[in-house]
Design a protein that fits this description.
Blueprint lengths: L1 E4 L21 H6 L3 E4 L9 H10 L3 E7 L7 H8 L3 E2 L4 E15 L5 E7 L2 E5 L5 E5 L5 E7 L8 E2 L6 H12 L9
Antiparallel strand pairs: 1-6, 2-7, 3-9, 4-10, 5-6, 5-7, 5-8, 5-9
Cofactor: Fe(2+); Ni(2+)
Family: Belongs to the acireductone dioxygenase (ARD) family.
Organism: Lupinus angustifolius
Length: 185
């Protein structure tokens, strides 16, 4: 997993958008925003003891797999456009990359973008209420495991959402933990 401060421009969203000069972002900096990360073995995810432990500890009792590529997704370009629209969720977004790669962009404390490049083996958790978006990179392929607590709910609330309870809770949590980084994995 790599992360950097993203140059926001109108070029193809699948390009890396490195800044000039490029500024990489550490796991600790991501953890301060509530973004959690683990590196796991994607080749044996069905028997991975660490994945089982994470799922058990965090209450992720539902799982499905999602292949994102032009050959397998109807209205592929439209779907990617929707994923790339800035939004929040009322629950955590948990994604485990099994194959391929893609980008999660999250807002930092100054409202700039941080681009997180996930590849096979990367498990990422975005907190409820964080503004974010997703796109594939130029490989145009990713296979993701999606994890949920209880029944799967995937409702995106496009920005602005400052009055949404999940956003208010995220902002409140961020203010309370300022200067107290969360543990990074």
């Amino acid at each position: 997993m790599e992360a950097w401060v993203m140059e926001d421009n109108n070029q193809d969203s699948r390009l890396p958008h490195y800044g000039s000069p490029n500024k990489f972002v550490s796991l600790d900096q991501l953890a301060e925003l509530g973004v959690l990360y683990w590196k796991l073995n994607p080749n044996d995810y069905e028997n991975d003891e660490e994945l089982r432990k994470i799922r058990e500890e965090r209450g992720y009792n539902y799982m499905d797999l999602l292949d994102l590529c032009p050959e397998k997704v109807e209205n592929y370009e439209e779907k990617l456009k929707n994923f790339y629209t800035e939004h929040i969720h009322q629950d955590e977004e948990i994604r485990y990359c099994l194959e391929g790669s893609g980008y999660f962009d999250v807002r930092d404390k100054d409202n700039g973008w941080i681009r997180i490049w996930i590849k096979a083996g990367d498990l990422i958790i975005l907190p409820a209420g964080i503004y974010h978006r997703f796109t594939l990179d130029t490989s145009n392929y990713v296979k993701l495991m999606r994890l949920f607590m209880g029944e799967p709910v995937w409702a995106a609330y496009n920005r602005p959402q400052e009055d949404h309870p999940a956003r208010q809770e995220y902002v409140k949590s961020f203010a309370e933990k300022k200067g107290m980084p969360l543990e990074a994995h």
